[in-house]
Structures are given as C-alpha cells and as structure tokens.
Amino acid sequence: MVTTTPPATDRNRSRRAKSAARPGDRIFSGLSKGSGITLLVIMAAIAGFLTYRAVLAISKDSVNFFTTFEWNPAGDPPVFGIAVLAFGTIVSSVIAMLIAVPVAIGIALFISHYAPRKLAKPLAYVVDLLAAVPSIIYGLWGAIFLVPYLDGLNKWLDQYLGWTYIFDKSSDGVARNMFTVGILLAIMILPIITNVTREVFLQAPKMHEEAALALGATRWEVVRMAVLPFGRSGIISASMLGLGRALGETMAVAVVLSPSFLLSGHLLDPGGGTFAQNIAAKFNEANEFGRDALIASGLVLFVITLLVNGAARMIIARRKEYSGANA
Amino acid sequence: MSHAVQERPVAFAKPRGPLSHARLPRWTPIAVAAGSVAAGVGIGLLAGWHSKVQWGLVSALLFVLATYAVTAKVEGARQAKDRVATSLVWVSFVLAVVPLLSLAWVTVSKGMEVLDGYFLTHSMNGVLDAEAGGGVYHALLGTIEQVGIATLIAAPIGLLTAVYLVEYGTGKLAKAVTFFVDVMTGIPSIVAGLFILATWNLMLGFGPSGFAGAMALAILMMPVVVRSTEEMLKLVPNELREASLALGVPKWRTILKVVLPTAIGGITTGVMLAVARITGETAPVLLLVFGTKLINPNPFEGAQSSLPLYVYEQYAVGTDAAVARAWAAALVLIAFVMILNLVARGIARWKAPKTGR
Fold this sequence. Notes:
The structure holds two protein chains of two kinds. By secondary structure, chain A is mainly α. Helix content of chain A is 74%, strand content 1%. Chain A has a two-stranded antiparallel ribbon. The model of chain B is unreliable at 4-15 (pLDDT under 50).
C-alpha cells in the first residue's frame, strides 16, 4: 500500500498538468507535430511504393537488372537493365562536376574577395536569380544554341586529344553527346554551388585574413591559407548538392542528348543515356509493365541521390558543430 | 648589454634588398586581357574556326599565361602566383557569365518574335504543327492551377512543420524531420513524379490530371518551404516570445499572433521562391499531366497542359513555327518565374524581420 502511493500521486499530478494545458495549445502542437510526421510518412511512402513497384518489375525481368545493356520491357521475355543508364548518369555528372566546381569556386571567390564592392552585391543577386531559371529553358538553349557552337570544340578535341580514347570521335554528326550534356549540366549547377560556396567564404574569419595580410601575404596567399581551408567542407557539401541536382536532371538531358543503349567510352560520340532522361523518353510509349520497369530505374536514381545528399548534409552538420560562425 | 645595443643599428643598416619591388602599372591586367583577346580572335580568324567557343578558350588561356610571364619577369614568383590566381578568378567569372548572358539574350530575342497578346490568349486548338499561330493560354491556365493547388497543399504542411521544428520540436522526432527535410530537398523531380504515378495512377487507377501533377509538385515544394520558414522563425528574437508568454498568452496564440507576424515577410518570400521553383518543373508534369492542345479548366479531370511541358512539346515537334512557339513560351515562363523572384526578394527587403539588437 505504502509503496504504491507515490506513483499514484505522480500520475495524478501529471494528469492534472495535462488537463490544465489549453485545448488550443494541444490542437496547435498536435497539428504542427502531425505535419512533421506527414513529411516523414511521405518520404517513407516514396521509398516503399517505388520499391514495391520496382520489385514487381524486376521479378519478371529475364536478365540481370544491373548489368544489362538493353531496355525492352515490352519484349517477350522482358529484357531491361540499367548498366548504360548508370554509366551515362555518372559520366555526365562527373564531367559537370569537373567543370563546374573549379569555376564555381572562382566565381564565389570573385564575389566574396576579388570583385569591386559595387559589382559584388548585384552579382550575387544575379547568381541567385539564375539558380531559379527552369531546367527546360536550359535544355532548349542547349539544344538549339549550344550544340552547334560546340561542334568546333568537338572536332578540335578529337584532333588533338583523340589519342586519349575518351575524346576519340568515331562518327561524324552533331554534338548531341555526353560531353555536351556534361557542359550543360555544369552551367546549370554553377549557380547552386556558387551560392553555397560564397556564403561559406564570406564567413571566413576576418581576423585570420587580416593577420595574413599583416604578415605580408599576397591576396592569393590569404585566400589559400585563410579562406580555402576554412571553406573546404563548405565546398565539398556545395559540390555534392550540385552533384545531386546533376544526377537527377531530366529535361535538359532529354532535350540535348540523342540517346542509345550502347555503352561507349567515347564521350564525343552521340549516344548513351541517363536514368532521368530514359524515364522521360520512354514513358509515353510504355505500357503498365514498362512503367514499372521505369519506376525500378527511378528507384536506383532515388537511392543514389539520397546517398549523395545525405552525405552532403552530414558534412554540413559536422561543420556546424565546430565552426564558430554559427554561434 | 652593449652587444645588443650595437647590433641593432647594424641590422637596420643592412637590409637584405630594396624594400619595394618593381611593380607593374595598374593598367597591366586590362592591357594583357585586351592583348590576349585580340590574339585569340586573330588566331581564330586565321585558323578559320567558326565556333566562337574556341576563340574564347584560346583568349582565356593566353591571358593566364601572359599574366604569369609578365609578372614573373617584373615582380617575382610570389606576385606572379597572386596575379595568376586573380586572372583565373576573373576568367572563371567571364566563363560563367558568357553562357548565362547568352541564355538570357537568346530567350528574350527569340521569344519576342512570336510573343504578343494573341499568343497569350489562345490555345493550340486546331493549330497544325507546321503553321504559325496558336498560343499558350491553355498551358498558362494549367500552370497557374497546378501550382496553385500544389501551394495550397504544401504551404500549410511546410509552415506547420517549420513551426514544429522551431517552437516544439525536441528529441529524436525533430532530428529525424530535420534530416529528412534536408534529404527531401534533393529528391529529383522525376522521382516525385514516379511516386505519384506509382500510387495515384497505377495503384488507385486515376488517369492523368492537373491534380496528380500538383501533388508531385507539392512534394517538391514542401522541403523548400520548411527550410526557409525555419530560418525565418529562428530569426524572431526570443524576448518577444517570453514577453508574450509572461503576459499569460497561451503558446499557440503567441505563435500565431507574435512569432508568425514578425516573420511573415520572410515566410512569404520563402513560399514565393518555392512557387517559382516548382513552376519550372517539367518532369513530373510530363509523367502526370500528359499535355493537351485544348483548354481544360478542370484540374481534377482529364489531361491539362503547363508552360514547361508546352515548351518541351513544341521543341519536340521541331518545325520552325513550333520552335518559335517554344521560345515564346520559354520567355513567358522565365518572365513568370523572374517576376515571382523579384517580388519575393522585394518583400524580403521591405519586411525584413527586426532582429533584437
């Protein structure tokens, strides 16, 4: 008897405290908590439903889903695999990153440390705006304007760097190839990477920079010793955010690339494909099973972008912990 | 003692070299840039490259090399490195600005050829692919309806989630929500489209409609709204909350009457930027809304069109008249998005939250 009394009073007190909470408070906190949970449920549902449909498709696939170079889910037996798509997605994204990251660091440095003050602010504003240009417009511009302009560059690369195998152009034809797609993706992710990197560079401790200047460092030495080390994790996470966008970009690739299901290391030859481009291109002619097959390839894309973005966020979160800038 | 006193003047009297190096005049970078551009154009003309991309690349390369050579000769290796870094930064700036300017210029100049009042007020009903005419009205209508519905779904959920994260959230659930909001920001738009396709269309058996597209757009919009609202709510000074709570105002009324009004400018900006982002999304619309030439004002039944989808379709048709229409629609789309952006940023500046000093 004696031992059970304290918990009983505790429970009583907590019940009284709960009933004292105003109904408005309970409704509002419940609503906001519910919204948060809704978001989690949506994420779980995306993963769950895509997996379910993908399993339906892959179980009927007559060949290995990951190593096949063909996409014919309507065939009998159905044959489809993502090898070419995975290769194309990675190659185009890597080209985009190789071009975009150094240039974006350059622009970010330009805005944060090099540009005349009067130019820096409007420039940052314009870069912000450019991040909002819809991808279909980049695609249209790329297909009609950029492709003919890159013809000359392609021939040039073939002529002087053809011995490197990847720049060997075996067939004539317009530049609707992985290389062009990479350049276009680079232009598209440039504003995103620049924005994040610029923010990080602006946070670099002024005292370090001034100390370096006082020791007689040139501007480049200040950047190399005080700004870049501080911004390294910022650059990495910004790049990964850009990579996430490049991996999932659909329309620009669908408009510019002339796709094929040939796995080719020759970047200048038309052909290849990416996950997102393949979905957009094959969707209209696909029957229900074909759509499931496309969903299966979309699931792979989803997992890849999830990993890339998750890694980027981890890096950002880790940086927040030890950076004094957020205190 | 006397040693130290004696040595000091000696050290001063024997500087290792002159204190000031030879410096290049201020106009050197400009002169080098002009010279290398001239050389690039000259080489391009002589070799007969028809693509200006090569001219630009050769000029940029010459600029960097010439800068290094000149500075290394006059000012020394360290200064040369500094100058090369500066010139590389300028080159990357120009490299980025040229395509972006070209994009803006091409879209505006080609779009203006077709864009007029007729184009904005007519659909493509009965217009053949190869003939000029027709318009974008049905797509504009579809875009506005789909984006409106998506905003109606996503804005409240996003806002409340942000309120939860800032005002209530503690512990594992809040951490999980924060992490997955971040991850959700990176979902490719086509995956959001596939998700709605898998559930709404394939499982539940509905046909394509504007509403299906709107749901996919809402998924893309939610994390953006959460993120920006969260940032804004964090800027609201705690003193305001405490003052209100100390007066005996319930927490929910404090949030509704004190916290949200203080941050309303930033929240509006965030929502409008999110709207601008989803307006340009093509991929989910392509999968779910399907596209039509006719005016379909009902977003819940039957295929609709939308601006980005219209651009894609007209480009795919490929005739001169269709491509011209694609450019005009692209101009309408970009104008729509840019106006949203500019207004949103204007609101942000005008109603910036007054942070505590």
